[in-house]
Design brief:
Layout: H1 2-10, E1 18-20, E2 23-24, E3 30-31, E4 34-43, E5 46-53, E6 62-65, H2 97-111, H3 147-151, E7 175-177, E8 183-185, E9 208-210, E10 263-265, E11 268-270, E12 288-290, E13 297-298, H4 301-307, H5 311-317, H6 323-335, E14 347-352, E15 355-361, H7 366-377, E16 392-401, E17 404-414, E18 421-423, E19 425-428, H8 437-452, E20 457-458, H9 464-483, H10 497-504, H11 508-517, E21 521-524, E22 527-532, H12 534-546
Parallel strand pairs: 9-22, 10-12, 18-20
Antiparallel strand pairs: 1-4, 2-3, 4-5, 5-6, 7-8, 10-11, 12-13, 14-15, 15-16, 16-17, 17-19, 21-22
Helix pairs in contact: 8-9, 9-11, 9-12
């Protein structure tokens, strides 16, 4: 380590350099992943380097000392090649020899004397090139059976055999894997025509087979072309005009670095993961203090204590003064804008046990909504921050004790969504993660959609943790429905994609992508079936036993509003 530190002092490390950096992994073992130097600063005569680990999430970025750098494998940043200029004009493409010859010929033609005649424009001879190879016609694709055919299909043995059910490898002519990880049906391309998403056949009946247990299944339908769900959570064509989607093209070195060292929120101290645009004068503080009820940011613990003082305490101490003095002191205390909240502002629309949900209008409670966005930006990298919170509703989940309602997490949604989004941003604060609160937030968002009579989907792209939570929730919800189906007249139960979507309020594209993600789809004798194996059933039952927190629809007191009328804003 000493040699590395000496070499680091002798060689000047600049921003953009790449080299291995020592860090601890989850097993607390040393590893040397490749990292990029984003910034360099000097504190008390000692240099610190802000590094981003190349193959890791940005939330792991940190300041390191020189003894953690491996200078033997230092890579200096490559200079960006400037675009060659032509005639001193930047941004012009360099001229090729053919273009120069053609340009000289054009100049000669233009300067030649015409003598009153117009020179005919030479026509290029179009040579016909024979096709060397011809594309063979695509193999016939088995069409989806109609509802009548599906209902009359025979029931197959429950035991899965290798020669009975055909795997996906045996049906490569049926589906292919696209860039975003979703299966598509192969359709022979036609010149001059564009492919359209085929999502009109979602009413096909479902046949379900379960391994060693009589259960149910589903017809598999490929998702439409514009589906934004993908295996890595990044859509193929992100919606940059959305409510809170972050435009990654405006990232700079400032927003790539964490600017808040630590946040104290109630009885918790949080280490931010990402940049958040708090005021510049607060970013140099070792700890940023937040009021856990109104989320106002303060620069010191003393300011926070004064912020939480109640007006009644001051009034009780000055009861011996005259009435005029008491009124004067009350005006002073009111002018100091002390915080009297012990819960988020807004309407409490759900309470069961110690869990409560508050609905907050972004127009009526702007200060709280903006402070909530600032806090959430510390832990959300895929979303941007809008100070115009008028078009949004915020649903804050809290946990109650004798001191008040403490924020656990929240999600926001647009008052009017043209793309059926029921969640814009969703966050569970780090102290409450891995305890079931994330699925509880997701379940609550779909309960609201059920009351509204709509199907919904979260706004894309999702973060890595958000994608895991949603996939887990969708899988458990759909499997719960399939396993509760009862046989009808001795036949295996049947259900349609639309019926699953209506029961759960999950959008059809998300239902299809979840069935595909679970890898349960099989093709047998002209019919798509879903086979539930023992491993799937046992894993689902174990997961549901651990899921103690559930939303009780009876405790929800929510009346949806028609936000299309601007007068209700």
């Amino acid at each position: 380590m000493t040699k590395m530190a000496d070499s680091a002092s002798s060689v000047e490390i600049v921003e953009g350099c790449r080299l291995p950096v020592l860090r601890k992994n989850q097993e607390h073992e040393d590893e040397w992943p490749l990292a990029e130097i984003l910034s360099v600063k000097e504190v008390s005569g000692r240099k610190l380097y802000y590094v981003h680990y190349i193959d890791f999430n940005k939330r792991l970025d940190e300041w390191v000392t020189s003894d953690r750098l491996d200078m033997k494998k230092l890579q200096f940043p490559k200079k960006e090649a400037k675009t060659p200029t032509k005639n001193g004009l930047p941004g012009s493409r360099p001229s090729s020899p053919e273009r120069e010859v053609r340009k000289s010929l054009d100049l000669q033609t233009a300067t030649a004397p015409s003598r009153g005649k117009t020179l005919p424009t030479p026509k290029r001879k179009v040579d016909t090139v024979p096709l060397v190879t011809q594309v063979p016609p695509a193999p016939p694709v088995p069409s989806l059976p109609s509802s009548a055919e599906a209902s009359q299909a025979s029931v197959f043995p429950v035991v899965r055999e290798t020669n009975t059910f055909k795997t996906r490898e045996d049906h490569e002519q049926l589906s292919s894997l696209t860039t975003n990880g979703t299966a598509r049906r192969l359709i022979p391309s036609q010149p001059g025509r564009k492919r359209k998403a085929n999502c009109g056949a979602t009413d096909e009946m479902i046949k379900v087979l379960q391994y060693n247990k009589p259960q149910s299944a589903s017809v598999f339908l490929p998702p439409p072309e514009d589906s934004q769900d993908s295996s890595d959570g990044i859509p193929s064509a992100p919606r940059m005009t959305g409510s809170l989607v972050s435009d990654r093209s405006h990232d700079d070195i400032v927003t790539r670095m964490k600017n808040i060292e630590c946040i104290e929120l109630g009885r918790h101290r949080l280490k931010p993961w990402y940049f958040s645009p708090y005021p510049q004068e607060l970013t140099s503080l070792p700890i940023l203090y937040l009021c856990e009820f109104c989320l106002k940011y303060l620069k010191s613990l003393k300011c926070l204590q004064r912020h939480l003082v109640k007006k009644t305490i001051v009034a009780n101490q000055v009861t011996f003064l005259s009435v005029v003095s008491l009124i004067f002191l009350s005006m002073i205390v009111f002018h100091q804008t002390k915080c009297n909240l012990r819960h988020p502002p807004g309407n409490e629309i759900y309470r069961k046990g110690t869990i409560s949900f508050f609905e907050i209008d972004g127009r009526k409670n702007k200060n709280y909504s903006q402070n909530l966005c600032l806090l959430a930006k510390c832990f959300l990298d895929h979303k941007t921050l809008y100070y115009d919170t008028d078009p949004f509703l915020f649903y804050v989940m809290t946990e109650y004790d004798s001191k008040g309602f403490h924020i656990v997490g929240y999600f926001s949604k647009e008052k009017e969504s043209t793309e059926d989004y029921n969640v814009a941003c969703i966050l569970t604060l780090p102290p409450y993660q891995r305890r079931g609160y994330g699925k509880l937030l997701i379940e609550f968002s779909y309960e609201l959609s059920k009351v509204e009579g709509k199907t919904g989907t979260p706004e894309k792209p999702l973060s890595d943790l958000g994608l895991l939570s949603y996939r887990s929730y969708w899988s458990q919800t759909i499997l719960e429905i399939l396993m509760d189906l009862k046989p009808d007249n001795g036949e295996r139960p049947q259900i349609t994609i639309n019926e699953i979507s209506e029961i759960t309020s999950v959008k059809k594209e998300d239902v299809i992508s979840t069935l595909q993600y679970l890898n349960l789809i099989n093709y047998y004798k002209g019919q798509y079936i879903l086979t539930l194996s023992e491993d799937i059933v046992d894993g689902h039952e174990r997961a549901m036993q651990k899921r103690h927190l559930r939303i009780d629809p009876k405790c929800l007191h929510f009346t949806p509003k028609d936000w299309s009328k601007r007068g209700k804003w």
